[in-house]
Amino acid sequence: MSDNALIDEKGPAVKCPPPLLFIGFLLAGYGLELLSPLPIGLPEWGQLLGLALVALAAVMLLILLITYLRAKTSIEPWKPTSHLITSGLYAWSRNPIYAAFCLINIGTGCYFNSFWMLLSFLPSALAVYLVAIRKEEAYLILKFGDEYIAYKSKVRRWL
Fold this sequence. Notes:
Elements: E1 7-8, E2 11-12, H1 18-35, H2 45-71, H3 96-111, H4 115-119, H5 121-144, H6 146-154
Helix pairs in contact: 1-3, 1-5, 2-3, 3-5
């Protein structure tokens, strides 16, 4: 089935809320840590680094929520988008929400000194690409056309 079969003017047909993917893989990393501990080997300040990354991600998510509220468009990827946001964090990344969730997984891994939890951002990022980003981008091209294509050519997907 093509991506276009999963989108229409109502929005991309995302079946799973993307944050659940990040949480699921983080929990899988925690499970692996319990079964076969694999510490990162960071000094004690590594926990502070982990907390700082999680705090940065939380601030990013708050800024992005405010951005969506001001633009009067939906933050949920399964709902229609009324405006293309290209400023603020979206001037640096086409997917700053997903980048923030990656930071949460990385920061949590640092905080718990767990290589498994830190690595959980990799399958999370791949899964969110396959489940959501491809459909979101196809939807945005359908909805905004050349405006989105021009934005896409200037701004990287992640960072």
